[in-house]
């Protein structure tokens, strides 16, 4: 059974991302587009649009050609939009990297994506420069101060953007990295049309974004959620975005108060703090109208608690990097919000709930894997035809790897995951990546990593480790060993020593067996 969106079909213009986002920029003029929250440094819409055009022109002068890749490896700053949209206007493809990545993690993404240039900030140069060299990046640009890189300001010299013919349905514009349903991170190929479509779909699905709103830019722009919903959709609507380079609860609350933030796109761990932390009551958040939660499940109880404490709407949506990202969202009408649900499919989106064993479609209130079809679905994974073929069916359905069901009103609920990824505070962690690191330790004979339930983070990585005889080590030693080699959010937080790892006859780790055991342990 195919479940269709309750919303009317929206028309999607065949246009490049940047002309779409900035089509009203001149009319917004001196209105602040991006404000660096901590410093108050501001880019108006007029300055932003002029800067995007200059960056495009100067990147072209330095040799960037259509389809070539520029990496952005920096925290949320106003300049992020200049680098992001300047690259796209020049016909380039943006690959965004988590600023917490180690040099090796960054090098992997830069090399895999074939990045020609890299934009970063001074404090990250000690990781960015060796990563760029290892990956064969031609030039590194630094926002602010830093030795060994070209100042970003050279890209802001007078220059006209090149004339580039964009084929929106086929030309890539962004290449974020996701683990998909399994394995190591892969480049998700998203076109201009994918992103433009998703913005049109969201606006046609009960999301009432107003140009007089002020939005907190705390969601990282490297992540598809912050990238699409804030960095693109809010700029298209003429909204003022207040950016935060890193999350700190007190600073977050102060910025929300001082800038009179009206809308906050957040993840459940931040909503948990808003609902329960005593310090929240010291700040005036009365201007806040709506909190939109995504990236990880939000319980009905927590949504209710946060809503009552803050006196605002708390609602939930759903999506994936592979769907640009939004596929479901609750309407902003309080009478139509269902807490605990991710809402109905957005405009132009179809869904199926499919039996995990037979692949047959299921009906109302029957659990299965959620499949999605719509104009926001990716072209595929970069350099990974097998993973693409596994994830995308010949009929255009994307297998999400998430288990859920739909109720009688067409609202969807996510209850489990087929896929192996760990969601730590809304960030994706690939178990295979951590297992590979553990197996380089001389004392480790075998290892399996799973998500372990955690009340604050949602899930934390837990490792089951088989030790080699005669090489003593401790759980603390192994956790420290991994922590030195991965971004901080990927650290293994729990270790259990076992005699063997459960595996299938073909040698594949039976991760679901370990996950089930872990869940049962936490429920008792």
How does this model look, in words?
- By secondary structure, the chain is of the alpha/beta class.
- The protein has a domain at 422-523: ANL, C-terminal domain (GMP Synthetase, Chain A, domain 3, 2-Layer Sandwich), CATH 3.30.300.
- Helix content is 29%, strand content 25%.
- An eight-stranded mixed β-sheet has the order 3-2-13-12-14-15-16-17. The chain has a five-stranded antiparallel β-sheet with strand order 1-18-19-21-22, with no helix packed on it.
- Helix 10 (268-276) crosses helix 11.
Question: In a nutshell, what does this entry contain?
Answer:
Helix content is 29%, strand content 25%.
Any idea of the CATH class of one domain?
A: Alpha Beta
Strand fraction: 25-35%
Cα-to-Cα separation, first versus last residue: 37 Å
Rough outline: globular
At CATH level 3, the topology of one domain is GMP Synthetase, Chain A, domain 3
Rg, alpha carbons: 23 Å
Oligomer type: single chain
Q: What CATH architecture of one domain would you give?
A: 2-Layer Sandwich
What's the structural blueprint in terms of helices and strands?
Blueprint: E1 2-4, H1 17-21, H2 25-28, E2 32-36, E3 42-44, H3 45-61, E4 69-73, H4 78-89, E5 93-96, H5 103-113, E6 115-121, H6 125-135, E7 139-143, E8 150-151, E9 172-174, E10 177-178, E11 186-191, H7 192-203, E12 214-217, H8 224-236, E13 240-243, H9 249-258, E14 263-266, H10 268-276, E15 290-293, H11 300-310, E16 313-319, E17 326-329, E18 350-354, E19 368-373, E20 380-381, H12 385-391, E21 398-406, E22 412-417, E23 422-424, E24 427-429, H13 431-438, E25 444-454, E26 458-467, H14 475-483, E27 494-497, H15 511-523
Parallel strand pairs: 2-13, 4-5, 4-6, 6-7, 7-8, 12-13, 12-14, 14-15, 15-16, 26-27
Antiparallel strand pairs: 1-18, 2-3, 9-11, 10-11, 11-20, 16-17, 18-19, 19-21, 21-22, 23-24, 25-26
């Amino acid at each position: 059974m195919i479940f269709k969106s309750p919303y009317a079909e929206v028309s999607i213009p065949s246009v490049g991302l940047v002309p779409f986002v900035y089509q009203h920029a001149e009319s917004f003029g001196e209105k602040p587009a991006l404000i660096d929250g901590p410093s108050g440094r501001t880019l108006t819409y007029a300055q932003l649009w002029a800067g995007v055009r200059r960056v495009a022109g100067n990147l072209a002068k330095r040799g960037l050609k259509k389809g070539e890749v520029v990496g952005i490896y920096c925290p949320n700053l106003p300049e992020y939009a200049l680098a992001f949209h300047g690259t796209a206007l020049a016909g380039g493809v943006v690959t965004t990297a988590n600023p917490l990545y180690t040099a090796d993690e960054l090098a992997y993404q830069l090399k895999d994506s074939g990045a020609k240039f890299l934009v970063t900030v001074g404090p990250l140069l000690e990781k960015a420069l060796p990563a760029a060299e290892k990956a064969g990046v031609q030039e590194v640009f630094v926002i602010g101060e830093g030795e060994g890189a070209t100042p970003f300001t050279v890209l802001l010299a007078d220059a006209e953007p090149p004339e580039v013919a964009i084929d929106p349905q086929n030309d890539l514009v962004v290449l974020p990295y996701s683990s998909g349903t399994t394995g190591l991170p892969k480049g998700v190929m998203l076109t201009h049309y994918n992103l433009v479509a998703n913005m049109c779909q969201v606006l046609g699905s009960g999301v009432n974004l107003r140009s007089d709103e002020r939005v907190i830019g705390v969601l990282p722009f490297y992540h598809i959620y912050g990238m699409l919903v804030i960095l693109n959709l809010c700029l298209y609507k003429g909204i003022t975005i207040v950016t935060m380079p890193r999350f700190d609860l007190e600073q977050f609350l102060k910025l929300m108060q001082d800038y009179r933030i009206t809308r906050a796109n957040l993840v459940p761990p931040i909503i948990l703090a808003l609902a329960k932390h005593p310090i929240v009551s010291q700040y005036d958040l009365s201007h806040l109208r709506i909190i939109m939660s995504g990236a990880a499940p939000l319980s009905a109880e927590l949504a209710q608690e946060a809503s009552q404490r803050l006196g605002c709407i708390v609602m939930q949506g759903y999506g994936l990097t592979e769907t640009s990202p939004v596929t479901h969202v609750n309407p902003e009408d309080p009478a139509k919000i269902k807490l605990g649900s991710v809402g109905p499919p957005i405009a132009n989106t179809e869904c199926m709930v499919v039996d995990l064993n037979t692949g047959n479609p299921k009906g109302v209130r029957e659990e299965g894997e959620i499949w999605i079809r719509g104009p926001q679905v990716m072209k595929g994974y970069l350099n990974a035809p097998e993973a693409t073929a596994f994830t995308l069916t010949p009929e255009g359905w994307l297998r999400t790897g998430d288990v859920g069901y739909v109720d009688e009103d067409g609202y969807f609920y996510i209850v489990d995951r087929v896929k192996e990824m760990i969601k730590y505070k809304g960030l994706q962690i690939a178990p295979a990546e951590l297992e590979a690191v553990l197996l380089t330790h001389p004392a480790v004979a075998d290892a399996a990593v799973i998500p372990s339930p955690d009340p604050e983070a949602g899930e934390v990585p837990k490792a089951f480790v088989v030790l080699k005889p005669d090489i003593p080590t401790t759980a603390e030693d192994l956790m420290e060993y991994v922590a030195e080699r991965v971004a901080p959010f990927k650290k293994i937080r729990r270790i259990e020593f076992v005699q063997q790892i459960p595996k299938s006859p073909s040698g594949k780790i039976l991760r679901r067996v370990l996950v089930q055991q872990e869940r049962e342990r936490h429920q008792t």
